[in-house]
Amino acid sequence: MPDFSRPLGDVAKRARGRLDYTQSEVAAGVETDIRTISNIENYRANPEMKVLFPLVRFLKIDPREIFYPEMTREGPSIHHLRTLIDGCTDKEAEKLIPVLEAVLHIMRTSDYTTVEE
Fold first, then answer.
1. How many domains does the chain have?
2. 23: domain CATH number?
């Protein structure tokens, strides 16, 4: 049986760091004890759904990061974009699609080679 604790631990630790939360703050937000959060981050836990579900929601984790850890190409910018998109209404997303498609087309044309940082 594969070890599922490592992807969960890695993702939880990264998300907690990104949000600048302590383990105590996460434990309080998830309504569990700090030992549970520590065990998750140190690959010593197989949490029940009553802990996993609130943890994923509290830390704003994309579940694909846990269940499909091979999808590691997503950096912080992709994660930020996903978070913004997830916060959109369907109507907002509908209006953003042509804008995003146009920007990507411009960025990908041969005479546009780089984005200034």
1. 2
2. 1.10.260.40
